[in-house]
Amino acid sequence: MYQKKIKENNEKKVFHYIYQKQKNLSIADISNDLNISFPTVKTIINKFLNTNIIKEDLKIGSGSGRKAQYYSLEKNFFYSIGISVHLKALKIHLGNERGEILKEVIIKDDFFKETLIEKIDDALDEFLADIQNHVKEKIIGIGISIPGIVDNENNIIEITSSIRINLDKIKILSKRYNLKVLIDNEANLCAIAEKFLGIGKDFSNFLVLNISSTLNMSSFIEKDFYGEFFLKASRVNHMIINFNGLLCECGNKGCWGKYVSELSLVEEAKKVNPNIVKLKDVFKNENFENKQIKEIFEKYLDYLSIGIKNIIFMYNPEKIIISGNISQYKDFFKEKLIKKIYDKNIFFRGSETIIFSNFGERSVSLGATMLPLIDELF
User: Fold this and answer.
1) pTM higher than 0.70, yes or no?
2) How far apart are CA 274 and CA 56, in angstroms?
3) With 60 as the cut, is the pLDDT of residue 4 above it?
4) Alpha-carbon gap, residue 367 to 187, rounded angstroms
């Protein structure tokens, strides 16, 4: 679980306000909205000007009277690096405070190994070698996403039930690059991407169901306007939906992840058409119109709807954001999925609970890139 406690000082509150508004900011408005004295806000604004976090805009006013000074958030005042670990690839990104990706490298390999951190170290060393020094000086941290669990209590990173890595390796990585290194479950980082950059902005309590090569989920709860929040990843991939079903690597039968991950859908479709190797191949017209593949996808939606129903009963969330690569293809199945979920339902909320991410498979990378920025600035 990642928990961000806002520091009890005015500077953090003012920054959070500025980040949310980004432009058309005046000292008077900030002072009134946050109930902080004008002189205190002015002192903070001057500090942010000196550190190039904000910039002065043209003064606004008419006539001969005194014009109001407005401010806006500066661009590229900080950078961070995001690293997302996938089944057969490692993605490294350089991003700015707005979540804009400025540099990307994708390395194809099997990264689900005990040597994961060492492989990240090698890739990161090469990645940084191509970044200009004036940019390096503004990098404030490294965020790493994994399709597993970070167990701080036992000091391990659990990639799978058989691959566990000592968390002390992260400390070594941090010392080597002299940067803060944060690591978390990819669903938690999807939630960060949605809250600060995506459709989660307007919600204080939501779930993200990330459907990728694996399946995972995160709860996002914001406690107040000033940015205190916490995230908690859950192992919904091992929620049993068919006790006589497929054998999972955990030893149980019928785990939800065995039926609704992106990988499981592709593997089933590949049995019909060997040319299907990626999710996008499933949704090609010539494939998706195939009767057998349509039946496979119909069954896939059955299993997906069963799990989502269980989640709604357990959590009664304000929103469920479906994230991951499959969200790009929502036009193919959104209406049918929602009908399956809400047919004869007794939920407290209606079908507007289910929404889809606009980031597709990028949400994990965006969240990993934003994590050091959020941790440092909020």
Assistant:
1) yes
2) 59
3) no
4) 9
Q: Which segments within 315-373 are labelled E, that is strand?
A: 319-323, 354-356
Domains (ranges, CATH) in the chain? 2-73 (1.10.10.10), 79-191+363-377 (3.30.420.40), 201-358 (3.30.420.40)
- pLDDT for res 239: 94
DSSP state of 325: G
Q: What is the DSSP letter of 67?
A: P
At how many degrees (to 10) do helices 330-342 and 291-315 cross? 50
Higher pLDDT, 172 or 62: 172
Beta partners for residue 103, in sequence order: 94
Helix (H) or strand (E) holding 296: helix 291-315
Q: Is the CB of residue 141 less than 8 Å from the CB of residue 80?
A: yes
Provide the strand spans (E) within the chain: 2-4, 54-56, 71-73, 79-85, 89-96, 101-108, 139-146, 149-151, 156-160, 163-166, 180-185, 205-211, 215-222, 229-234, 319-323, 354-356
Tokens in use for 258? Answer: 């065995």
C-alpha separations of 188 from 25, 36, 69, 183 in Å: 31, 32, 39, 10
Beta bridge partners of 28: none
